[in-house]
Design goal:
The protein is globular, with a radius of gyration of 19 Å. The chain is built from nine helices and ten strands. α5 packs across α6, α6 packs parallel to α7 and α8 packs parallel to α9. It is α/β, with parallel strands linked by helices. The chain has an eight-stranded parallel β-barrel.
Length: 359
């Protein structure tokens, strides 16, 4: 994709308002665990939608438990092979998320696949096998875990020291198999340091104090701002504004130029509670946004990411709603509804990408 060099009249973040020619903005769709379970036709249709919207990248889970469900001596690649082949056919770059632990590899007493691996070397061996298999297909970028700063995805609780050990073993294994491998620190959730989670800045600082920032090529981050826009400036600081805090941590630990990959960003259009359309009076105490507000958030995210020099990638989550049950907003992050019909955000996202490519 053509490098995007955009300078706003007023800075969107307290950083220089230029983009390095060597850091073009990567735009993609984040699918989570959905792609590997689709039929060949539905998989093709999903990736065709990514191409149609102007995305060049796809982020998808490559779960350890899917590849080695019952033994460290057996590999089952077939489901992800289909994703690799389908993405390659459409000239889409793939960002696999290496994550989650099969039963045989968990800490004693932990029953969730989100348990941290008992042995980082076993996880690293899985990563090395993935790199050996898929580097010939053009896959050289890997994200190590998803939201490891939360108790939801790193059980029983976030552990920066343990994550750094995993990161060290895995980054070495990936680069041994593929010297051109690029490693992304697992996308950090925009959480607070309470209730079993650590804030992105606190987690990154603890990892960096152990040298983890020097093991990666970029930091993954999930700065969901809804019902606010990414470009909004607030007295308290939205998760997008908190990118400056990550910059400060990285600078303090000797990697001031490290880019941020926004490997998830989006907004749900239904759920329990009231919806916000962005106006005062609807923006507080809300669980989701209107479809028109989601469209505004999608378009603004593209423009804001392009105007934020530290941001090297933006992945919208997700392509399609997971269901229609409004008891959970998790069902409604798609650019498409569950029946495949387009929300206004689909066109808004497409037009925003096209506008950047014309610059």
């Amino acid at each position: 994709m053509t490098a995007l060099i955009i300078c706003a009249v007023t800075a969107l973040l307290p950083t220089a308002c230029t983009r390095d020619d060597h850091r073009p903005l990567r735009l993609g769709i984040a699918y989570g665990h959905r792609l590997i379970g689709l039929s060949d036709k539905d998989l093709g249709d999903a990736l065709d939608e990514a191409v149609d919207v102007g995305a060049r990248w796809v982020r998808a889970d490559l779960p350890w438990g899917d590849v080695q469900p019952s033994s460290p001596d057996q590999y089952r690649w077939s489901r992800f092979d289909r994703v690799v082949a389908a993405a390659g056919k459409r000239h889409l770059s793939l960002l696999p998320i290496l994550a989650y632990t099969p039963p045989w590899a968990r800490q004693p007493g932990c029953t969730s696949d989100k348990c941290r691996p008992a042995d980082p070397a076993a996880f690293a061996a899985f990563a090395a096998a993935a790199a050996a298999r898929y580097a010939p297909s053009g896959i050289h970028t890997w994200e190590i875990w998803n939201e490891p700063n939360t108790g939801d995805f790193w059980k029983p609780r976030p552990a920066p020291a343990a994550y750094t050990m995993l990161l060290r073993a895995t980054s070495r294994a990936l680069r041994h198999e593929d010297p051109s491998a690029q490693v992304i620190l697992g996308g950090l959730a925009a959480a607070h340091s309470q209730g079993g989670s650590l804030s992105p800045a606190d987690f990154l600082a603890a990892v960096s104090a152990r040298g983890g920032n020097r093991l990666v090529d970029a930091v993954g981050y999930h700065p969901y701002t809804y019902p606010y826009l990414a470009s909004d400036r607030t007295p308290w600081g939205t998760p997008w504004e908190d990118i400056s805090g990550l910059e400060s941590v990285l600078s303090a630990h000797g990697t001031p130029g490290m880019p941020v990959w926004i490997t998830e960003y989006g907004a749900p259009t239904d759920g329990p509670g009231p919806a916000s359309d962005g106006r005062a009076g609807t923006i507080d105490e809300t669980t989701h946004v209107t479809e028109q507000r989601q469209a505004a958030i999608a378009a603004d995210a593209v423009r804001t990411a392009a105007a934020t020099p530290r941001v090297q990638a933006l992945f919208w989550y997700s392509d399609r709603d997971l269901g229609t049950d409004p008891s959970s907003r998790e069902n409604f992050f798609g650019l498409l509804r569950a029946d495949g019909s387009a929300k206004p955000a689909l066109g808004a996202f497409r037009r925003a990408i096209a506008a950047l490519e014309r610059k």
